[in-house]
Specification:
3-stranded antiparallel beta sheet; binds cobalamin; Ferric Hydroxamate Uptake Protein, Chain A, domain 1; globular; alpha+beta; Glycosyltransferase; 5-stranded mixed beta sheet; 17% strand; 2 domains
Amino acid sequence: MWACASPAWRPAPRRPSTYTASRSITSYYQYGLSILALCVHQKRVHDSVVGKLLYAVEHDHHLHQGHLSVDTVAVAGLAFTCLERSSLNSDLRHRITLAIRTAQEKVLKAQTPEGYFGNVYSTPLALQLLMTSPMPGAELGTACLNARAALLASLQDGAFQNALMISQLLPVLNHKSYVDLISPDCLAPRVTLEPATVTPSLMQVPEFIHVMLKVPSVWPPYRHSISVPAGSSLEEVLMKAQELGGFMYGTQASLSGPYLTSVMGKEVGEREFWQLIRAPDTPLQQGIADYRPKDGETIELRLVTW
Ligand code: B12
């Protein structure tokens, strides 16, 4: 199954400029999102800018290590749909129409047996794209129904706690996509999500769990069993490890929550990231603040390039 370990592929590096970011942060996901954002505000961009995204979709540049980045293709498809609906970049009309079809086909092909497109967290954007589809047919209908059913089940299981993920899901629950922002209907009734209320029982004695924390890519390698109250997040495991000594980490705030940027003093370099892995080799589908390890799990922090 595609997980975030297969990140969005990136456009060619920028030419040196006065911009002094410490690392390049451009990806086709961000490129597509920017075109989409400008388009819903009816801002015209040059054909060469759109052409670069078209080229990426036509030539599978959103592939990474052989995997498809469903989030990236979905955002590109939404951007093209907006351009088509707004009659922008009309000289590219034919390529844009074909690219929408290509993006939709790629997303459909990425459906898992559970019904997700890619993984649970790429499914909301994928559904946004497929909902805007001019593609007729029972196949699309069944695929979308299966994805919706899988999403609703995961909602019940509490998979959507992250505000950014909820922001990508809410339009789908309202039968809308980001493209509808071209002319938003502010008066339409809205589906919202109610926070689940958990009443902790009085006299609850916290149960403790043990999580093995491993960092093999530093010298000397770090490996310790950390004891935390059951239900703790991975971030709480990291905090506890730091408190015990011999472990250090740093984060950067992002819209998705705290992003792990350094471990044992090792800061990520350009196009590197600290990947979160459940041993032996399963990349986590949530960040440190949202993921709650189970008793006996081994979590590895692995420095990889994207
Ligand atoms: C590109 C991308 C990456 C790139 C970011 C590098 C870069 N400079 O572009 C890389 C490959 C490094 C990456 C890493 C991870 N990612 Co990621 N990523 C994305 C993607 C496709 C686009 C994000 C983006 O550019 N947004 C637009 C910009 C404008 O917004 P931004 O807030 O500035 O974006 C920054 C943050 O989002 C941050 N970031 C990226 N991913 C994640 C994940 C988490 C949990 C956090 C806190 C921050 C973060 O990097 C972005 C660029 O600087 C999203 C897809 C989506 N549907 O949102 C997944 C997504 C957000 N990632 C996800 C995950 C799970 C991860 C990892 C935890 C995977 C792992 N097992 O290690 C790691 C983060 C680990 C850590 N160190 O904390 C999930 C989050 C699901 C959730 N429940 O919240 C998503 C939704 C993908 C998916 N469908 O599963 N990711």
